[in-house]
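A quick aside before the break. I want you to see a complete sequence-to-structure record at least once, exactly as it would be stored in a machine-readable document. Don't worry about memorizing anything.
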Amino acid sequence: MKRFGLAALAGTTALVLALIWVRPLSHATLPPRVSLNALQLTADGYDTATLTIDEPSPRPPAIAIAPAHAATVEDVSPTDHGWQAQIRAAVTPAILVVRVRIPGRPPAVLHLLTGLDPTDTAADGTPDFLRLDDPGDQSAFRRWFTFLAETQYFQPAERRPAEIVDCAALIRYAYREALRAHDGNWATDAHLPVAPGIPSATKYQYPYTPLGADLFRVKPGGFQPADLTTGAFAQFADAKTLHLRNTHFVTRDLARAQPGDLLFYRQASDHMPFHSMIYLGESQIAKGAARYLVYHTGPDSDGPGEIRRPTIDELRHFPEPDWRPLPDNPRFLGVYRWNILRTTS
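That is the input. The structure line, written in tokens, reads:
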């Protein structure tokens, strides 16, 4: 009986200690209580899920998402019982890992699936996940696209990207770089003489889309999910392909052009018959009310060519009539706009 009593006493003591020490520690060793109102989103750049954190804390909880470019955290705000935030899908399908941290607690982990948006509302071959529907994103793209193209005119030839060798190359460079995240690392790599205060587009940043680096449509037809793997998109596109597969006709009246639109020409030449120019509008670099265009002449027998920046008036009175952007010039195909800026509603 004595041995049994000691054993019982030891067990009782252990139980009391457990109640004293474990119970106060249990809350601190548990992750915060979190929930999502949806477990799957469409990767269209806009679909959102509400993240609820049922834990009061004096500061907003730290919310991290992996992969980092597959979604963003927005609108973190306090509630009566804790915090709430919106998880906005980007455009790349992924299995998201959402981690919520409150100081002194282990993280809570949730999973959220984002699925491909296969729609092509305009049936022009450009998937809707690439279209910049938000006016702010459209403005950011236009400003970056025209700024980057105009900047190359002022750059010494030896400081320009080596890829810029003709009219289409200048367009491809400015288009691709306009869709990047314009952070400090990018600015350093870009070697820009000045850094403009232009926001980046928020729907996505190149190359974080289902297409990766293959940004330009090169095959006919509307978009199909199989296009992601069958070579319908590529990093390279000549002026003809930019005209036929990546832009749409707007007008033959240059007065209706918007900054970032393209002018296309088809000349009677076997060597590079398609040519293109970028409509800048007013310069973002030099002050004045004049409206400009910028283009690369392309190489010829005399050398590698050059970048030119004429005003609209100068181009309308160009010595060679085939280059005048006038409605009665059959060589002038008109003003075209990027498909990603196409209004589909």
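Two observations worth writing down. The domain at 34-116 is CATH 2.60.40.10 (Immunoglobulin-like). The CA atoms of residues 26 and 235 lie 55 Å apart. We'll return to this after the break.
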